Amino acid sequence: MTSLSPGSADALLFDLGRVVLDIDFSKAIACWAGHAGCKPEAIVARYVRDSEAYRLHEVGKISDEDYFASLRASLGIAISDAQFLEGWNAIFAGEMPDIAELLPRAARQMPLYAFSNTNRPHVDHFSKEYAGLLGHFRELYLSSSIGLRKPDAAAFDHVVAAMGVPASRIVFFDDLAENIEGARARGLTAVHVTSPRDVGDALKKLGI
């Protein structure tokens, strides 16, 4: 069980997807199906989220064109890179509830950082669309920039070192259980975000 109390943290580290920004992948599927002239269910049945190409794309090891080519092959749809990109960026469904109020309040008390597994086109998109909200973070550690991704130990170690804060004094928020486990294994205090209330509740315990 995560132990949070006033004075127990020196910095907060946030995942972006489903913690700060709402994600709806069905929007990508619907967009691609529309361009391909097929049913969304046909794409859902073939889509593998954590494929090798997906992981390589997230750490900047393959280009957007190569990733979309892998999708074209695995999904069996002959749509263009521009059409893939349109759907790829359609997944951002706005801000998570209350986060626009919580982040500035927390930022007045301690530094905020973000750590996200993401890719270059998504970074280009959300950096512009959500510039105001993301401006509350001192630094964004993005897998496609640092070449490392959660839940790998090396990724957490890199971010902790870059923040310059002891791991035990960082509270990390993420929606995926494997990332929570990965963070705890490297000494961070981690909060599993399974509903929009979880961030606010944790901040209250921290006296924020």
UniProtKB/TrEMBL annotation:
InterPro entries: HAD-like_sf, HAD-SF_hydro_IA, HAD_sf, PGP-like_dom2
Segments traversing the membrane: none
The keyword Lipid metabolism appears for this protein: no
Highest taxon listed in the record's lineage: Bacteria
Coiled coil ranges: none
Keyword Zinc among record annotations: no
GO molecular function, one term: hydrolase activity
One family name in Pfam for this protein: Hydrolase
Key words of the record: Hydrolase
NCBIfam families in alphabetical order: HAD-SF-IA-v3
Protein name as annotated: Putative hydrolase of the HAD superfamily
The organism of origin for this protein: Bradyrhizobium stylosanthis
